[in-house]
Specification:
By secondary structure, this protein is α/β, with parallel strands linked by helices. The chain has helices at about 15-30, 40-50, 65-75, 95-100, 115-125, 130-145, 155-165, 170-175, 180-195, 200-210; strands at about 10-15, 35-40, 55-60, 85, 105-110, 130. It is about 50% helix and about 10% strand. Helix 2 runs parallel beside helix 3 (about 65-75), helix 7 (about 155-165) crosses helix 10 and helix 8 packs across helix 9 (about 180-195).
Length: about 220
């Protein structure tokens, strides 16, 4: 039996309109109201402040700074915000980073509709939710002491790192995230220094080794 989500006001943030449509149909079918939709990170923050939703369902990989930077900004404005991050990533790095930034839940895009509804219901009721498919990976990483080499990056640096690893140029990232090219260049310099890499190819290789490019669309 699907949970009853009546009186729940939801903000959907995903850069694919067809994905948002699917979420909306599923959530509204369970009684929730989708009060706003966003297609990029910056829009998600603006929509959150304007609509004051009771829960946010947000993709990790979006233009405009990405979901993680938007998450950090939302939580900074409203520490009690209930945000579920959704992603194609099946590694342990991004889920852990999301939870540390204040997400109340993390769900893989491969999850079933029932899992999504269950995650929304639990987070809406003040609980936390972690996709069972990721729990074992995260637990193993904690036990084995697997380090996250990207933990030294700020959310903005991480967003730039991901787009560089996906092959975008500094000018393309600057346009996408509405930053000056010099600002992106400064982020790139700090990223190289912190991660001890020399060029974009090494950034891509580091992302691949950490499972961060699997399922990601540039």
């Amino acid at each position: 039996m699907n949970p009853d989500l009546h009186e729940l006001r939801i903000l959907l943030a995903d850069d694919h309109e067809v994905v948002r449509f699917g979420y909306r149909m599923l959530l509204e079918g369970a009684g929730a109201s989708v009060v706003a939709e966003a297609g990029c990170g910056e829009s998600a923050v603006r929509m959150f402040l304007a609509a004051q939703p009771s829960l946010v369902l947000m993709d990790v990989s979006m233009p405009g700074g990405g979901g993680l930077l938007a998450l950090e900004r939302i939580v900074a404005r409203e520490p009690a915000a209930r945000v579920i991050m959704v992603s194609a990533h099946v590694d342990h790095v991004i889920p852990v980073r999301s939870l540390k930034l204040g997400a109340r839940g993390y769900l893989c895009k491969q999850a079933s509709p029932d899992q999504l509804l269950a995650a929304v219901s639990r987070v809406a009721n003040g609980q936390r939710y972690l996709d069972p498919a990721l729990a074992e990976r995260i637990a193993f990483a904690q036990v084995s002491g697997s380090a996250d080499p990207l933990a030294v990056l700020t959310p903005r640096e991480f967003a730039v790192f991901m787009r560089l690893a996906q092959g975008l140029s500094v000018s393309e990232i600057a346009h996408e995230q509405q930053l000056g090219a010099s600002t992106v260049g400064t982020h790139l310099y700090h990223i190289k220094q912190k991660l001890n890499v020399q060029n974009q190819a090494e950034l891509t290789l580091l992302a691949m080794r950490n499972g961060l490019l699997e399922g990601v669309v540039a």
